[in-house]
Amino acid sequence: MTKFQTPDFTKAFENLFSGADFTAFNDVVKNSTEFNSKFGKIAIEAAEKNAQLTQAWTKETLNQLEGLTKTQKDPADYAKVITEFTTEQAKSTTDRVAAFAEVAQKAQMETIELFMNAGKEIQAKSQTAAKKSTRKVA
Q1: How far is Cα 122 from Cα 107, in angstroms, rounded to an integer?
Q2: What is the largest CA-CA distance in the chain?
Q3: C-beta separation of 67 from 85 below 8 A
Q4: Please, are residues 116 and 102 in contact by the beta-carbon 8 Å criterion?
Q5: Residue/partner pairs of 15-22 with CB below 8 Å, 24 or more apart
Q6: In 3D, which of 58, 44, 47, 50 has the Cα closest to residue 99?
Q7: 16: helix, coil or strand?
Q8: Could you list the pLDDT tens digit for every one of the 138 residues in the chain?
């Protein structure tokens, strides 16, 4: 029985890519990872702030719920406690939702700024590359 051997393509690939200039590819990878890092930082900061806001709101709500669990002497007192709880919730909800909106707005503005800066960098690099190409042709 003969042994089947697969061809060794190592040399072929070395020869294929030996004269290639990977500077542009390396720059693209570097720029992409830097952009993704900045974008990820914006997202993580927004998520952390939202988690903090959620935790604070939950703690406040649970503290207010303690009043609902206490035994009342008069049935009318239950209505009073529930009314106070819902009133407090209604008041704090507006402020809490506004805080979440601020976090979202900040993240949105930082993201827009990041994209604008990336666009300016790409435009500048494109102009530089076009000028180099024009000089080579002329």
Answers
A1: 22
A2: 98
A3: yes
A4: no
A5: none
A6: 50
A7: helix
A8: 567 777 777 877 777 777 767 777 788 888 889 999 999 999 999 999 999 999 999 999 999 998 888 888 888 999 999 999 999 999 999 999 999 999 999 999 999 999 999 989 888 888 887 787 777 766
Q: What CA–CA distance (Å, rounded) separates 102 from 95?
A: 11
Joined tokens for residue 108: 């949105």
- Please give the angle made by the CA atoms of 75, 79 and 81, to the nearest 5 degrees: 105
DSSP run (H or E) holding 4: none
Identity of the residue numbered 102: E
How is 40-58 classified by DSSP, letter by letter?
Answer: HHHHHHHHHHHHHHHHHHH
The residues, ordered by sequence, that sit 6+ positions from 99 with a Cβ below 8 Å of its Cβ are 53
What amino acid is encoded at 43 in this protein?
A
In whole angstroms, give the CA distance from residue 32 to residue 38: 10
pLDDT at residue number 20: 67
Kindly state the DSSP code that residue 35 receives in the 8-state scheme.
H
The whole-angstrom separation of Cα 63 and Cα 6 is: 71
